[in-house]
Amino acid sequence: MNVFDWLSDLDVPQFQRFHVVEVKFKGGRKEYLRNANQLLLHTGDSVMVESTSGTHLGVVSLQGELVRLQMLKKSIKDDDQLKSIVRLATDKDIEKHEQAMARDLPTMYRGRQIISDLKINMKLSDVEFQSDGSKAVFYYSSDDRVDFRELIKLLATEFKIRVEMKQISLRQEAGRLGGVGICGRELCCSTWLTDFKNVSTSAARYQNLSLNPVKLSGQCGRLKCCLNYELETYMDALKGIPTIEGRLKTKKGDAVLQKTDIFKRMMWFGIVGEESVWIPVSCDRVQEIIDLNKKGIIPESFEDLNPDKPVAEKLSLSELNSDLERMDKKYGSTKNKGANKNGGRRDNRDNRPRGPKPDFQARPKPNAQGPATAGGQATQAPRTAANPNSPNPNAGNASDSNADGATPKPYKKKFKKKFKPRPPGNGPQTPPSA
In 252-410, which ranges are E strands? Predict the structure, then answer.
């Protein structure tokens, strides 16, 4: 029960209660019935009511003066067209009603198979059996007119009952099936919403919502009914917001509207070329600039006539670089991050001081100068002042030889020997041979 009687705890004068009662049926359907027999009813009681053929079971959902207000709201007249409540439901009536409800689901599945065989363009959404089992109402939805005369004959022959076809909209279908909305609550159409109003995409535009049909659509596939709930509030707030038809011109540059907060009456602009910095400006100041631009006057900036309004903080390039350097010192540089696969050796090699490379060709080589001797060996040129490239210019005309008379060995680059790892084992191991 989703209806709350807020007059139940009030001390109202004792008088005869309103003779019309609101009764709820399957799928959230509600009807207003006359309590002609003056039965003592309470909210939640099961009652047997009149129908076009036989009787049907319903539950009392509302009674008293609130029923009178609801009838005035929905323009329902209190006349002889209102059906009456027969009696309170007995245990046998409730048991019979449960047996009839158990037939709803199998009948709906079988009905969908028959519709598919006949190739009728319609969707069967729900079936409701009457409590006495004499009639069943088939609820369907379709975009076009449907000729279901042959379908009614087949359904009546299949289930041996009276068949009534009732077309409903997609919103009513969602209300009958029920569910939970994106807000986390039960669907409005299945709880309290009875009349459906037209919802357009302009309601989303006025509220600055993203025009995404997936987010704006409900479970029925149509626009959500709750888009109209706060529309009037937004319409009132938009009355004092100036309309921006183009760019605002200032001496700092042309400004483009980026964001509008209609409740704070603030508008954010970005200068062309500096869109990353948004400047908040009041709506009154924006209207002043628009009037000045229409007269051909270009103001200095947004803040000339509004010194008390907040202004966006602008960081210079030097301050930005200092902040980046401070972050690099604290968390480490992110340059070439991920490009170095050798443990940072590439970065260290790139950042080392650049100097002249050692020239190994400048070393004196044997057999480079001097005539060959009779023994087949060559000697270098004498180390004199005339030969500045000599390793020892103070040695005079002596030959470049060792003390024992041997010639120097040629220069060779030495490499360290790499030993293979020792094989695993428990005994003593011998080093590998050189």
Answer: 253-261, 266-271, 274-282
